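G., the chain you wanted modeled:
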Amino acid sequence: MLLYEDHRSHSAAINLHSVVYAVAFSPDGSILATGAKDGTLFLRDVNGAACSLRDRGLKNFPVHAIDFLPNGAGVIAGGEFGWSMWCPEGDGWQPFGPQSIRPVTSLAVVTDRTVVFGIGDRSNPAAVGALEVWDISADRKSPCLLYTS
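Predicted structure as tokens:
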């Protein structure tokens, strides 16, 4: 299990210039994922080495939620940009599977196939929200809507 500590002394390349909004450990505890207000998404291993999945862009789309699939086959991140998935491939991580551009406020991985997303715009207090259940292996949203506000 990874016992995370401040790795600033290990790598000067990771210099977060933004507030971290989301963190998650991989199922085996060997990787820590962090997502920030400026849209960056990093994966760090037990040695403090980091891999960037999303970099700061011209428009900052914050990362609001991160979680790993229980089988360790991928990581899912959601935010104002929608949601995306990445899987380990070779020495890095590659985008895979379905994705959505609807703003995500939260997410929970239920199984290797099922993910629940909180959908809505955090910056708009009058926005309507929803919960969506996705079968990510089939790239489809559940036809039943659980909740709207």
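Residues 87 and 97 are 9 Å apart (CA to CA).

Shout if anything looks off.
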